[in-house]
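Worked Example 4.2. Consider the chain below.
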Amino acid sequence: MMERFSFILGATDGKARTGVISTSRGEVRTPAFMPVGTAGTVKAMLPESVRATGADILLGNTYHLMLRPGAERVAALGGLHKFMNWERPILTDSGGFQVMSLASLRKLAEEGVRFSSHIDGSKHMLTPERSMEIQRLLGSDIVMCFDECPALPAAEETVAESMRLSMRWAERSRDAFGDRPGHALFGIQQGGVTEALRAESAEALTRIGFDGYAVGGLAVGEGQEAMFCVLDYAPDMLPADRPRYLMGVGKPDDIVGAVKRGIDMMDCVLPSRSGRTGQAFTRRGVVNIKNARHADDPRPLDEECSCPACRSYSRAYLHHVFRAGEMISGMLLTWHNLHYYQEIMQGMRDAISEGAFEAWEAAFHAKRAEGDIEPV
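Applying the procedure from the previous section yields the following structure tokens:
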């Protein structure tokens, strides 16, 4: 029998916490940042390169994989882990968020969502039951229940209606998931930026019972201040002995602020997407490598970083290959960004374990406030 999913809480420092998620494919150290492998790959990275950055777990995308190459095909080829050559844990989202973004191509009903593929216009129906089936075929270790997520800002009545539909879908997801040793199902709290709706959602999810809980419906246009206001109370509404996952976040200061407020897991396309567009996240803030100021600079992107981009290449070279449209630009900058994100996670895990999170956070913000190094 496969090892059952478990979460062991470690040290706490204020609301910030460390822990270990155990799955049949290995352990995940929390707080954890999950690189996004949308279509079975973290763009511009080899799987072994992603692992070398310190990542314990990846996120796969149900919507994109169901459309191409198809969940049944992935299953026939041995499952997503084998298909993409990543033998460590994988979390798959439910497809709900992507379907939300297809407002002009979808029709929402109690049963689920009927939508047209953005690839070829083919018609599909995604329900809680079908989402669970797709994620089972993919073989993901952590499965997300199917939900509906309105873009913010939205009328409170709209958010409430959406949240209650998501809670009904959560119960159907739980029933369809069944008992799968070695695999976990997470519920998703909704409710926008309204505390009472968040509480109602948390109560409904806790009553159903999940292996972990996500704070959903944020990072969808509400801004950091509003997001942090929700995170000041939303994680506390969820069971303390289960992982808490903030979906789709975010920038480095978003991540630090979320961990400070009790979040254990995060994912975001930002490190890889920014890398491909010439943006690098460093200890001193964001560097736009396309800017002419870097053209003659022999120094590394970040002198304290040990990633290949910083260890072996100059800002001048990174500027050149980006301006020349060379693929190595996206590869090196993505590696750097993912490496830096994992350094942040390790720094927070160490600081929480030592009871020094507040001092670590102050140093993190102070360094960023200094700004980038002066041009040569």
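The chain has a mean pLDDT of 96. DSSP finds 15 helices and 16 strands in the chain. Compare this with Example 4.1 before moving on.
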